[in-house]
Design goal:
heterodimer, A: about 110 residues, mainly alpha, Helix Hairpins, 4 helices, about 75% helix, B: about 475 residues, globular
Chain lengths: ~110, ~475
């Protein structure tokens, strides 16, 4: 039997993995993956809370498809975001033949 | 009126790229069209804000109150100034998409200013952010691209963190509507740790946009590498959008933290510490910069610290008189900072456009070469430092007064010390412009549209400085609309 705690723990682990990736990786594509993992951690939270959470009084007032709706919006936005960032990374590759962000250091100070 | 202005902004931004299909090389026309659209929506929202109706709108997704009105006007005004300055700045590129992206950013910021639901807030946040990633890399040169890569990845990270914070809030309350979250907030004792995590993630998510230390590391690179008009937009408009989102969600945060009741990590202490660190780090880093855009970027970070001071009394006690005063000061400083920093960044952008240099040496003797730019830069610097009778003085006065009579009096002292300190590096640049000899003599052409924008911004700097009463009552109306419902 699945319980809310399982989902929240997995989601927290995804959050941890995402932040670990953002901190340690220097490849722009890997950084993008890490961000996508963070977004999916939040998405998992939304659907799990929607399904299992024992909500406070607010739930009696709100019709509760909010979690799923939010996830649909968030997936679409994440796709748009990935498209823009990949386009920028493609330009970076054309300029430097590399997508290592630690090479991008012409402006320091 | 609000609907009309949102519709024409959206339609304009969507249709502008079609100009490219009809006939190539129409970027000037696209600029004029966008400027007209922005001016019309500015007027419509201005008329609407004069007689606000604080009823929920669009099924409670948007709340058309005065707070939203003030911020929408600031952001549309900045975008309009950026668009007009771009007539001369973006001449070399022949793509109306630039103006279309500006239009989308403006639409996102207007929606964000009014949003009253975390779902709307997140969608508007992304609508505002995504076009600016593309705009930052618009040059496709190495520096512009470097700025875009850093800005886009950090921006995406902040959106993801924000999304996680929203998911936790939803899990704790079962709603994403901000008034609903506030009124029904009742967290069992064992979940307060989770609520604390949500609050910290909110602060981090908004903090990246608001350029709060320690979330500021991308700011100088992004502002320096991006085209100067886009840096103006980032510093004066999208950063303010971070503040309006934070003010809207702050009500939730204050409620959550009142429940956790941790004496050291109270929200007021967190904001006070962030304000102190942000303004100090910003000012000290600005002092050692050799490039004008980086100096402005760090001074922009320092200003975010001053604005945060206004959040402290609200977080400590949302119903006190000091809270209203602090929030008024914060909103007024947002308005003033948008005007001052917009003027300073556009002046620096014009110097870069004409002299192809951003180092401080380019500013030697600027008063003789580009007198209008030099006087604009001087006035905006004095305003940023808070010298009376310019507009920055009044908002800083309100901010410092709001904390002076409470447990956070040391913030007022730190703020005044920081202002005096910042006058050091501002004064140094002003001395370069007026006292030093230029590297090469001769007047430099100052394009017509830049001069128009400078004249309007300088008029606002001096106007609000001499007659602050109108602006203060405007800001205080906005502060009351958030404090009293």
């Amino acid at each position: 039997m699945n319980s809310l705690a399982d989902f929240v723990v997995v989601s927290a682990m995804l959050l941890g993995i995402g932040i670990y990736g953002l901190v340690t990786k220097r490849n722009a594509l890997r950084l993008l993956f890490a961000v996508e993992i963070l977004i999916n951690a939040a998405n998992l939270n939304f659907v799990a809370f929607e399904q299992y959470a024992p909500f406070a009084p607010a739930s009696t007032v709100v019709s509760n498809a909010v979690g799923q709706t939010f996830v649909l919006f968030s997936i679409a936005l994440a796709a748009a975001e990935a498209a823009v960032i990949l386009a920028i990374i493609v330009v970076a590759y054309r300029l430097h033949q590399d997508v290592d962000v630690s090479e991008l250091n012409t402006m320091e100070g | 009126m609000l609907t009309a202005s949102i519709v024409i902004l959206g339609a304009g931004a969507l249709l502008l790229p079609l100009l490219q299909v009809v006939k190539r090389g129409q970027q000037q026309l696209a600029g004029y069209i966008l400027a007209a659209i922005l001016a019309v929506s500015f007027l419509l929202i201005g008329l609407f804000t004069m007689s606000p109706t604080a009823v929920p709108w669009a099924d409670g997704l948007l709340s058309p109150d005065q707070l939203g009105g003030v911020f929408a006007l600031v952001m549309l005004g900045v975008t309009l100034a950026v668009t007009v300055a771009s007539f001369d700045f973006i001449k070399t590129s022949s793509n109306p998409v630039y103006y279309s992206l500006l239009g989308f950013t403006a639409l996102g910021m207007v929606l964000l200013a009014y949003s009253d639901d975390l779902l709307m807030l997140f969608v508007a946040w992304e609508l505002m952010s995504l076009p600016t990633y593309a705009l930052a890399g618009f040059d496709k040169k190495a520096r512009s691209n470097e700025a875009a890569v850093k800005y886009a990845i950090i921006g995406a990270m902040s959106s993801a963190i924000l999304l996680y914070a929203i998911s936790l809030t939803y899990g704790l309350t079962g709603s994403t509507q901000i008034p609903m979250i506030v009124s029904y907030f009742a967290i069992p004792a064992h979940q307060t740790a989770l609520a604390g995590v949500a609050v910290l993630l909110f602060i981090a998510g908004f903090g990246f946009k608001m350029s709060i230390v320690p979330f500021h590391m991308w700011i100088p690179d992004a502002y320096e590498g991006a085209p100067s008009t886009v840096s103006t937009l980032l510093a004066s408009a999208t950063k303010k959008a971070g503040f309006v989102a934070a003010i809207r969600v702050l009500l939730v945060l204050a409620t959550v933290y009142a429940l956790t009741k941790s004496p050291i990590f109270s929200l007021a202490n967190v904001f006070a510490a962030l304000a102190l660190v942000t303004m100090t780090v910003g000012n000290i880093s600005a002092l050692t910069q050799k490039s004008m855009t980086r100096l402005l970027a760090y001074s922009s970070i320092a200003q975010a610290g001053y604005i945060l001071i206004g959040f402290v009394p609200f977080a400590a006690n949302p119903t006190s008189a000091a809270a209203a005063l602090g929030m008024t000061g914060a909103i007024l400083h947002v308005i003033n900072h948008a005007i001052l920093k917009g003027a300073a960044f556009l002046a620096a952008g014009l110097v870069f456009l004409q002299l192809k240099r951003t180092d401080l040496g380019a500013y030697n003797g600027l008063a003789r070469r580009m007198p209008i730019t030099a006087i604009t830069l001087t006035l905006s610097f004095l305003g940023l430092a808070g010298v009376p009778p310019l507009n920055g003085f009044w908002s800083k006065l309100l901010l410092f007064l709001s904390v002076a009579n409470g447990p956070f009096w040391w913030l007022a002292v730190a703020g005044i010390v920081n202002s005096a300190f910042s006058l050091g590096y501002y004064g140094w640049v002003i001395k370069r412009m007026y006292a030093d000899d230029p590297d090469s003599p001769g007047r430099v052409h100052e394009p017509f549209w830049f001069v128009v924008v400078f004249a309007v911004l300088v008029g606002l700097i001096i106007g609000i400085g001499l007659f602050p009463q109108q602006a203060i009552s405007f800001a205080s109306g906005a502060a009351n609309s958030i404090i009293h419902g």
